[in-house]
Amino acid sequence: MSSPHEFRHPLAMRSDQATSPSGSGGAAASADAAVLGRLVSAEQTLRDISHALAHDLRTSLRHVASYAQLLGDLPGAEQPEQVARLSQKVLDSSRRLQRLMESVSDLARLQVEDLRHEWVDNAALVRSVMRGLDIGGESGSVRCEVVAELPPAFADAGLLRRVWVELLDNAVRHASTSDHPLVEVGHEAVPGGSAYFVHDNGLGFEPERSAMLFGLFQQGAGAPSPGPGVGLAMVRRIVECHGGRVWASNRPGQGASFGFSLPAAAD
């Protein structure tokens, strides 16, 4: 089994980056940096939503319109099977569009002010999410291991659950391409906070795509049942609202690792 340190994230806070100037000037600079980080995150979210409205949602609407047109052109009484098939396509496309709209709406509404911080038992939360996704259960084919103890986090419990759901679901879908699917969950301490990761032994992704994977409607190669492409964008937004960072790393033929960092609780 690979050591989690072999997948150490490139964006983790390093000791030479964690030192801040002393005194009130240092505190002011830190506050300014936090505000700037939130503005950059919000700007990226708006760009992602604009792209979604301009392209992906429009594509789904076009599919609905096309199938509906074909359905209207058919003599229903003479071709009931084809009518039923097209009707199902219209219904499926409509449901997909509804899910996309709901997810994009959630992404657009999420603000730092919405967070309700509390101490969250990460270990219990991950076990709960695994049960909900049936990871490692009797009916599941993917084995999951927690390779490092998960300390509690000072975060919004509901949003942190969403982060784990999206990362674990993504890992399971990609690990299922392996003959012996395995998902590993771990943690490492970093200066100023904690870093968590979810690693799968699937096909991985193209290295040049690592910076794009947390954008809206970005799909990794090789997943047998790709999601709508909103989950990782939501992960990025939630983590950045908490003052943390996200990353993805990859080794050819040995899967991918997705992770996030969270800052320590403020005194």
Give an overview of the whole structure:
The longest helix is centred in the first third of the chain and has 51 residues, at 23-73. This protein is α+β, with helices and mostly antiparallel strands and 267 residues long. β6 and β7 (256-263) form a beta hairpin. The chain is built from six helices and seven strands. The protein has helices at 15-18, 23-73, 80-109, 122-133, 157-175, 231-241, and strands spanning 117-120, 143-146, 153-156, 182-190, 193-200, 245-250, 256-263. Residues 1-22 have low confidence and may be disordered. It has two domains: 21-109, Helix Hairpins, CATH 1.10.287; 117-263, Histidine kinase-like ATPase, C-terminal domain (Heat Shock Protein 90, 2-Layer Sandwich), CATH 3.30.565. The radius of gyration is 21 Å and the shape is globular. The two termini are 38 Å apart. The strands form two sheets. It has a five-stranded mixed beta sheet with strand order 2-4-5-7-6. It has a two-stranded antiparallel ribbon with strand order 1-3. α4 (122-133) crosses α5 (157-175) and α5 packs antiparallel against α6.
The beta-strand count equals 7
The domain tally reads 2
* Helical content (DSSP H or I, runs of 4+): 40-55%
The fourth-level CATH homologous superfamily of the largest domain is Histidine kinase-like ATPase, C-terminal domain
> Approximately what portion of the residues adopt beta-strand conformation?
15-25%
Radius of gyration: 21 Å
Give the terminus-to-terminus CA distance.
Answer: 38 Å
Instruction: Identify the overall geometry.
Output: globular
Biggest beta sheet summary: 5 strands, mixed
Mean pLDDT: 75
Q: Secondary-structure element sequence?
A: HHHEHEEHEEHEE
CATH class of the largest domain: Alpha Beta
CATH architecture of the largest domain: 2-Layer Sandwich
Uncertain residue ranges: 1-22
CATH domain fold name of the largest domain:
Heat Shock Protein 90
Describe the strand arrangement of the main beta sheet, using strand numbers: 2-4-5-7-6
SSE-based structural type: alpha+beta
Total count of helical runs of at least 4 residues: 6
